[in-house]
Amino acid sequence: MLYIVIGFLWVSLLIYLLMGGADFGAGILELFARETNKSQVRKTSYQAIGPIWEANHMWVIIAIVILFVGFPDVYTTVSTYLHIPLVVMLMGIIARGTAFAFRNYDAVKDRMQNIYNRIYVYSSFITPLFLGIIAGSAVSRKIDTQGTNFLDVYVYDWYNWFSVAVGFFTVCLCGFLAAIYLIGEVKEIDTKAYYIRKAKIMNTALTVWIIIIFWSAHQDNIPLTTWLFGNWISLATISCSVPAFVLLWVAVYKDKVPLMRSLAGAMIMMLLIAVTYSHYPNIVLFKDGGHLSLIQQEGPDKTITSLGIALLVGSLLILPSLFYLIYSFGKRRVE
Length: 335
What we know:
Elements: H1 2-31, H2 35-49, H3 53-56, H4 58-70, H5 72-81, H6 83-105, H7 112-139, H8 150-154, H9 161-183, H10 189-219, H11 224-229, H12 232-253, H13 257-277, E1 282-285, E2 291-293, H14 301-334
Antiparallel strand pairs: 1-2
Helix pairs in contact: 1-2, 1-4, 1-7, 1-9, 1-14, 4-5, 6-7, 7-9, 9-10, 9-13, 12-13
């Protein structure tokens, strides 16, 4: 049952990165759009994510609940030593959701719309930034449980080049996903070309931040190269991602919407496999060489069993409803 719980944790993170990432990416694209294009991006993104935007955060809630109930030591460590970026990320989620609701459903359209728009786009940027920073900090070996001052214990464990680079990489990844997704949401040739250009820009930015991530990992003695190329699973997924990337852009230019979206999702899945398999089951790595493991730091057996049963039963209820929700609104847009 433990492996079922771990599987749900991993899948929850993957789906949140795919669906929530594209959701955040829509706001990121709007943030960097010219004034003449902002209304178009706003309209398209609302049509695409409006019906399901609240459902996206269900996955991060599931992940947090799994850690809280099934792996309390991991939850306590992350929420203590990384409480600053965690609080900023959660505030970003709240601010973004509130602004999205008011700017689209407010009965009175006045100057407050400008404030809602700013809150929405900036929180869309900040939230994935700090989500990536948390992920990078967990494996950067910067968490210092023996620190003697506030900065060493609560700041420098996440405020470093590697963690921040992973954060900006996550931002660009969300923008790239949103651009790829929104290409299929419009029919006008000029608008499609606009989102293709945005996808290219985000693609270039991803490349830049990948270089910075490897550079910072080398500077901080983080064995990132070994993690990604030192085992056949990670090496195989990275090798498969290269032809997938080429096919993705072929699908973009041939306007094969289902194919481009599937390939984008597959690339994210392969990326997540590559970066998590190499140090599995260790999920948090400490500065002193210690770690927290999903196998060694799990909760009591009865708790894990109950949690696994709850996740299995809940998935039978939630997943069909979610897929039907997406299908229903997707079909309505086509009609």
